[in-house]
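Worked example 3. Consider a protein that binds S-adenosylmethionine.
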Amino acid sequence: MFENQLIQALLTGKPYFGPAMRAMQGPPVRHRYLAALVQALSHSKSQRDIYILEIGSWAGASAITWAKTIQKLGMRGRITCVDPWQPYFDLTIEHESHYEEMTEAAKENKIFNLFLHNIRAANVSDMIDYLIGNARQVLPGLPSEKFDLMYIDGSHTYEDVQSDIRQAKRLIREGGIVCGDDLEFQKHCLDEQEHRTALKTGKDYVSSSSGNYHPGVTEAVAVEFGEVSSWEGVWAVRKRGSKWVKVELKTGKLQIPDHIKSAARALEVTQPEEIELVDATEDFNLVKTKDRFLAVAKKLGPIELFREQLGDRELAPLLFTGKTLEEVRTKSISWETSAAQPVVELLSDTDSYNLLKVGEKFLAVAKSLGPSKILVERLGERELPPVLLKAETFEDIREKALKAEQRTMAVTELVGETQSFNLVKSSRGFLAVAKQLGPTELFVERLGVRELAPLLLIGESLEEVQEKAHASERQTLEPAVELVDEVGSYNVVRAGEHFIAVAKSLGPLNLFRERVGERDLPPLILVATDPSVLRQRIFEINHKGSKNQDLP
Ligand SMILES: C[S@@+](CC[C@H](N)C(=O)[O-])C[C@H]1O[C@@H](n2cnc3c(N)ncnc32)[C@H](O)[C@@H]1O
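Given these inputs, the predicted complex is written out as structure tokens:
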């Protein structure tokens, strides 16, 4: 789902700072402080351009904030971004999934290409220079006292942050600001022993009795500057002669920049609801969410686990909802006192169903759902074919179960495959089952009678489903893009019937693949059916000396 938003942004030329590739780093609110820091700088500057040096740019969110704020303040300036744009976490000590996601995103220049896309899409690429490399290698080569602001948001290890700060002290002009991200706690707010232990783990981010934080950042800032100004993770100091002093910020009027606002909205949709445990009865946790109260059955486990699944509906007897705490408390207690659980009795079974008596009702419960006990809590009022059937008598439920079994197609064997489908023979015909659905065995219980293109195709014969599978594959196939030549600063690719010259500055072809369209977009994309025409056009462009800065 997230990838779709990303692809859409790439195709429509919009900046992307959604959840895919962890493009958005840190809480969006921090960008308000970045904007305010530029403002603090502009007060102390005359007409000169503002020079900003950023260590750690990822997908470009903060770089764009600097550029947009400079523009908004009616000033001019340049931002130099230093980043290797390569995997940098030690996954043997960092186990949370987002480290893996970032490592994956940094491979094969993917995040670098997104950075390039974003700064272009935000129309600020003419203000941004980038130096690809590790700060320890790149910073010593930069001229002293050149920058008005240096933002440190690269590696979080103590040694790296300390090295960045020491370079900053040399690189910043009088009156300039050194700032950074990820200072959740200053050292004096932490338990000393706990902090020392956290540092020794070498981990990027740890939890402590004060809260979660980046120990390397806390330590390096404390050692190099002592106490600094800080606002929700962003920290800063200003150079005054030989001293480093705190920075006063006016955040009142400044808003979160637009490119971050839309990302914040996208994140809101995907963030689980905030919930707070406020009370409990014998069997229920009573919790408060943004706009209501819930009683959540304790048997569902810790409420944190349940967080993402909180829907809008009441789901008695597991989840009661109400406008007030009293309302949900009353509902819980009345359930506890009135409803002893129905007695569940296993009467018999068929090949695929357990036949149960539950209170006064008879149920057939698909064996694929696992032991019927697990299901007891969930036995509701509703029939849920083909996994849960209901009847008034034992005979009726048995008959229903047998009929349902006949309807369900039992897969007998895997008889072939195409590139994207498994071809299987079932008791009622042949099926092409999309491989992306996983092993066909897992899918057996879900095989209905309906065709469900492009995942499930049904036919009378093997040839029929094979043909359907091939047709579906042809339809969904991406255009085959093949690199056939290189001419100067262009890659020449064949895409179906067309030859396309793609400026190398657009990044690796694979990221670009979805965008290889029909349109000519000189000087970045040239399209022709004859490669010699392409060569001629590239020659002309290269000798026109166009002033267009996007010229590769
Ligand atoms: C938290 S991200 C930066 C987020 C970015 N400032 C933003 O606002 O979205 C950290 C970045 O630091 C970069 N990085 C890691 N080690 C680095 C190093 N030694 N020198 C420079 N950059 C580094 C990573 O590649 C990554 O892009």
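Take a moment to read the result before moving on. The pocket of S-adenosylmethionine is lined by residues 25, 55-59, 61-62, 82-85, 88, 134-135, 153-155, 160 (CB under 6 Å). Residues 277 and 348 are 42 Å apart (CA to CA).
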